Amino acid sequence: MEAAAVLLSLAMRDTEHPVSDLCGALRRISHAAPLSGHPALAKDVAVCIQSLQFHDRLIQQLAAVRGLLASVVAEAPLDVAGFGAHRWEEMLKMLRERLSEDSQHHLFNLLLRTGVVDVEGQCNLQEEEGGVELF
Amino acid sequence: MPRILAVDDSPSMRQMVSATLSSAGYEVEQAEDGVQALQLAGRQRFDLVITDVNMPNMDGITLVRELRGKPNYKFVPLLILTTEATSERKMQGKSAGATGWLVKPFNPERLLATIQKVLV
């Protein structure tokens, strides 16, 4: 599990600079040419910006998984004697409490196949993507 | 042009929000969490703040509540831009004093339209 957490960290770090470079390039493109005069270019830049946010989401989810792995290693050794269903439930509760986003709870349920995977809730979240609500 | 403070713990998200807003002519400052945003907002006047929710040190909902408590930001539009989309979370934002709630991934055109709308 420690090795998995380290691998995740390395993979996340590997993408950091290229994505940052890509964001920087997009920013320069936006500044260099007034996009309002180039609707096709503006549309392409918008597609890049919107799509890049899925990378950000992936990184957030991987960070959550890495955090869970680290928690398991640090606080809930699996090789202790008497590890049973009760201890397993305790550990799952501890891990769930560490998740901050609703989407991370969905991911957690999918990963461990515990609890009920809220397919309807997941669909609703996807429908909300890009949504705007003014109060 | 109006000055906007973009708050997000993700550097790439900050860059994307910043690129979108500055391409429309807005002057953009960035902060990586609520604490840094509060410090910046205390030193400078922003016409709008757009913030993520889940951030280290101080989350976006707390930041909105803190800003609303300051006389300078009582009527400044405070937008939340997050992956969270449940009505419970939105209610928390509304109660804290947020002007609106946008769900990631944002559409640049729609973000700019919303900002124009709330800045009027």
The overall average pLDDT of chain A, rounded, is 77
How many individual β-strands of chain A? 1
Beta-strand segment tally of chain B: 5
Cα distance spanning the termini of chain A? 44 Å
- CATH architecture identity of chain B: 3-Layer(aba) Sandwich
| CATH class annotation of chain B | Alpha Beta
Q: What fraction of the residues of chain A are assigned to beta strands by DSSP?
A: under 5%
User: Helices and strands of chain B: which structural class?
Assistant: alpha/beta
Shape field of chain B: globular
**Helix residue percentage of chain B:** 40-55%
Low-confidence stretches of chain A: none
Q: For the CA atoms, what is the radius of gyration of chain B? A: 13 Å
Q: What oligomeric state is this?
A: heterodimer
Number of helices of chain B: 5
Helix coverage percent of residues of chain A?
Answer: over 70%
Instruction: Briefly note the structural class of the backbone of chain A.
Output: mainly alpha
CATH topology of chain B: Rossmann fold
**Chains forming the largest contact:** A-B, 36 and 36 residues
Summarize the helix and strand pattern of chain A as letters. HHHHHE
Explain this structure to me?
- The complex is a heterodimer of chains A (135) and B (120).
- Helix content of chain A is 76%, strand content 2%.
- With 135 residues, chain A is mainly α.
- Chain A has one domain.
- The mean pLDDT of chain A is 77.
- With 120 residues, chain B is of the alpha/beta class.
- Chain B has one domain (3-119): 3-Layer(aba) Sandwich (Rossmann fold), CATH 3.40.50.
- Chain B contains 5 helices and 5 strands.
- Chain B has a 5-stranded parallel β-sheet with strand order 2-1-3-4-5, with helices on both faces.
- In chain B, strand 3, helix 3 (60-68) and strand 4 (78-82) form a beta-alpha-beta unit.
- Chain B is globular, with a radius of gyration of 13 Å.
